[in-house]
Amino acid sequence: MQGSRIAFGPFVLDSGAGTLLRNDVPVAVGHRGLKLLAALAGRPGDILAKAELMDAAWPAMAVEEGNLTVQIAQLRKLLGPAADGGEWITTVPRVGYSFTGVTEQLGAAKRSPLPLPLPLPGKPSIAVLPFVNVSNDPEQESFADGLTEDLITDLSRNSGLFVIARNSAFAYKGKATDVREIARDLGVHYLLEGSARRTAGRVRINAQLVDAASSNHLWAERFDRSLDDIFAVQDEVTGKIVEALLGRLRAVPPRQRPKSLEAYDLCVRARRLIDDSPQTAREAHLMLMRAVSLDPDYAEAYRWLAMNHWTGWVHWGEPIEPARSIALDLARKAVAIDPDDAGCHWVLAYLLAYDRNFAEADAEFAKAIALDPNEADIWATLSDLAVLDGRVEEGLEHIRKAFRLNPFPASWYYLTLGQAQYAAGTYEAAVETLRRDETYRTSSRRFLAASLAQLGRLDEARAEVDLFLVSNPHYTTGRWAMTEPFRDAATLAHFVDGFRKAGLPE
Q1: Which 8-state DSSP code applies to residue 124?
Q2: Which CATH superfamily does the domain covering 125-246 fall into?
Q3: What is the pLDDT of residues 131-184, one digit of tens each?
Q4: Residue ranges covered by each domain of the chain
Q5: What is the pTM of this model?
Q6: Which sign does the torsion angle of CA 107, 111, 117, 118 carry?
């Protein structure tokens, strides 16, 4: 049933993408529930024995029959009554269960982890579109982008709002797109748009808050200030938007602001270079070192320096030590300087996990979520760690939440999703995810090769291995297994098995 699409009543079940839609709106159903529903709906009218269903949902695992009973009850509750008032799933006493609905096999469709249009959240939802640089100096583009990113961060720290992540907002940079179309694509009600001009020590910012459904402006204002007041302007814009959407200001701990605008500019430019290549990572390192020399108390610069050292030994094959120790020290310093910055906490949490300090990592993740529940990267990294701990269903839920906050994310989100799908044994879905343009040709190829190998498509798997090794000539599965923060031996063995079948170097 992997990869098939089945329609019944108002539902469409896509077992490959791992989704269930009711009237095109996603239904929050767990990984085991999806597997059971796929098995039942794939053979309507047949009686499926309990043992067969348990094999479908818990392959190669010994579980109590009560788990099946609980999952079936949850499915019935989610599906509700059928058109005739009966149940979609009937119980055959002492034997098993049967799916009684009329089904239709649908053709293949181009799928994404989250179908569009996205449903609106149950709280005010907003996306901050990239502010337009209206100065005559193209060098000021990074300033306008930094302003946008800071406003996204400031708004997302308010738990009363649902805020789309930076990567998805910047998908519309330089594009003339109707606000209603953008809001529909991102699944939000409101959009903040504006422009920025920086010249001769002054900054002029125009901002407007738009109700996308009606295209009406709820709030608009122009700020003409000294450049030294830029962070005060950001705070003022954030406060007015929160007040307009929630009716009152909700206090959040203030973020630490840099004392040097040059350090700020360097950090804005550097944080985009870290993940691109070893060469750009080295360029970012120089920028960030300059930033902390200009402002030794700039927490965000230390945070990105920490991540830059981490990518060196995890992604670019550099020696683990002293990079790992340096990264951890830098992350701790960032948190000590600004304990109210969620980004500093989640970076420290991730590095602690790679240091096998799991208890402290879990505590730091909890602090990060409390400070910024809208930070999509937190949920994506939590997905990665949950999968490596053997909590695959939880990992899938985390990455889907990350995609909802960041519908057009960076490539590594697809790697994380594909890794989770591989761990879940949904290899066809993993192949589809990892062959998306957004992530294909990155280090995700190793997981693509493993997924193809588990499907018996060994020629394709070995072709992917050859391509992967061109960019990663020093890779060995042993080093990868030693480096990754696994907590579950069975999950590690599952990945290693796929890598070996694909022909990756041991």
Answers
A1: -
A2: ABC-type transport auxiliary lipoprotein component (3.40.50.10610)
A3: 999 887 777 888 899 899 999 999 999 999 999 999 999 999 888 778 888 999
A4: 5-106, 125-246, 257-311+318-356, 374-506
A5: 0.74
A6: positive
